[in-house]
Fold each of these.
Amino acid sequence: MIKKISYIIFMLLGYVAMACPACEKQQPELLKGITHGTGPTGDSDYIIITATAIIVLVTFIYFIKYTFFPGEKSTKHIKRKILNYGQ
């Protein structure tokens, strides 16, 4: 039952993310069908979108890096209190 409900939710979320036909006509060719609204109207909009995408990508890379390889090796580091709790 949970699988069916989650499948329906994911299908609806995918449908909501698609652009409607009226919005698709207003989009530039590069972004057609991706989002609702008029989309970027000038070169400055593309610069802002690119800068934001780069910031998100760098943040994601650091998130992965420091999640799996935190680099703290000291036995007095605060994470040791949490990891060794109850031992």
Amino acid sequence: MCGRFVRHTNAAELTRLVGALLPVPDPGPSYNVAPSQPILNARERDGQRVLEPLQWGLVPRWAKDARKLHPINARAETVDTNGVFRAAFRGGRTLIPADGFYEWRRTEAGKQPYFITRSDGRPMWFAGVADRWRGPEGTLETCAIITTAANDAVRPLHDRMPVILDESHWDQWLDPRHFDAEALQALLQPCDPGLLTLYPVSRAVSSPANDSPSLVDALEA
């Protein structure tokens, strides 16, 4: 799964990288992004690619109560058939920028967090889905990160990982005018293990209250 991640690249740079045309409010950098927080999503809206913050934890449009259903991850294998995500997959596909994510490994001394990032230092872009819920309290726009089977790099830590989409697939993924479930799901594969580097970090990341650049410092051997 993906339950915590890092995003410190600023919105202006991310806008340039993803080719978004509109400026956005930037929630600001975080070294410990947690569920229910606003996270940036790139998506096509009204014929333009935009980058904007959505609440992490998807509330499907048909939910009667926005407080009761907000999954943070959608499985690649069932995102088109699961009723919670089906509409979002068909019309609300997004890209979620990150500079890395955390996963925990079980050890005799307890759970040890690891930071997983790109070996080349560039931001990674998770496949995401978004939906809009309307209720008496107003409108709520939310999202979830799509996960797939872990690759050889991540598997020692967990059996799932976020889908990291290659830039060559961004246009196909974001295009709301064309929907081919089989072709889109074919994109939702584990990335090449060589793309990633990982190392153990402080257990301080286990608390969402902690948020500082030191969280991604490698533990000394």
Amino acid sequence: MTVIEKARRAKQASKILANLTPEERAKGLMYMADELEAGQSQILAANQEDLDAAENAGITGAMLKRLALSEAKIGQMAQALRQIGLLQDTVGKTVQLITRPNGLTIKKVKVPFGVIGIIYESRPNVTADAAGLCIKSGNAVILRGGKEALRTNTAIAQSLRIGLNKAGITPECIQFVDNPSRLEAHTMMNLRGLIDLLIPRGGPGLIKATLENASVPVIETGVGNCHSYVDAAADLDMAYSIAVNAKLSNPAVCNAMETLLVHHSIAHKFLPKLAHDLPDQGWSLGDAPEAWT
């Protein structure tokens, strides 16, 4: 099936999804999580094939690590879907109400975009995360992952679609592009009227190509070098937990923290504990001698 046909199906499905109740969407997410765990063996087998192919192609290091899944990671992906399902549902919520002098009432209401296209690279967990966030917000989604994770992403998407179907929601809400060619990506970038919003997640080359070629609206994402800032008024225990999680939960991904900025007035309190604990986990702080005085 071509990406154009997938987009047409997603567009039709988006009209159904937008009219579901919050409870129905939450149920869909719970079933998606269940099926992700139920399909674990097939997903891991597909992932091993992708890993073998990647190693044969000379891929090493961080990229290979981003590609790899495990039982624990699949469990985390499923748990993330359940947590998304428990979030407050804001579809249809009135966020602003204005009454004009002439009596005209104007409301600002949160509504779904319709169909969101997401182009991403070698992290299979994005397939589940992105699909979950889109379903929660009442949007159908078209997923186009990197070629390195094609088998894994296909297996994940299949499990998610089965989950939706078991929850009584059309599985056409989730479309996966199984042809990872640049031509298909370029086609997605120009499906005005079928794709309402496009989000590229990946390196600077992908984001640059999307911005230069897309005729559909695009949300530009960052390419890494993420910063965290600890203010003088911060809860230091909370800031410590956030900083450790931002760096250590998955150091290989593009949104892992690379730079930690700390207000000078609390640096002498905050940084020593971080410097003491990080080596136990294989990390250390860079040199910033002025921060210790």
Amino acid sequence: MSRPSILPMLGLGCAVAMAAIAPAQARSVHVTGQFATEHGATTTPGGGVTAWLNPSTNLVTYTMKWTGLSGKVTAIHFHGPAGAGQEADVLAPVGGPYVSPLRGAVLLSSEQARALMAGQVYVNLHTDAYPNGEARAQLSAQSR
């Protein structure tokens, strides 16, 4: 009488157990937004924000490009939570010097990262002529 080998069953059991305890590999979330005027600015800004959110660490790496502003950028901030046309507090300031293209990273809290993935975060560019913000890019997660 032939006895079934226990090795294949043992191997399958180990594979299932390893899959259950292995950390999930989080995929980065691609986020984009295009700059448009805000606060009554009469300029025609161009460019936008391309960013990647690492959902495991909440680190956002970004590239921002802009054109068509009234002058030099004096400050840049991530704001939220707020939908299009709404305003919100600063979530994270962006360090200078403010030269396009600008690359960097900001660390968000888990709550802020959820707001980013829900389209509730925007970036605005401040200038001397528009100290409250001349251009705004509402960020939205892109599907893969």
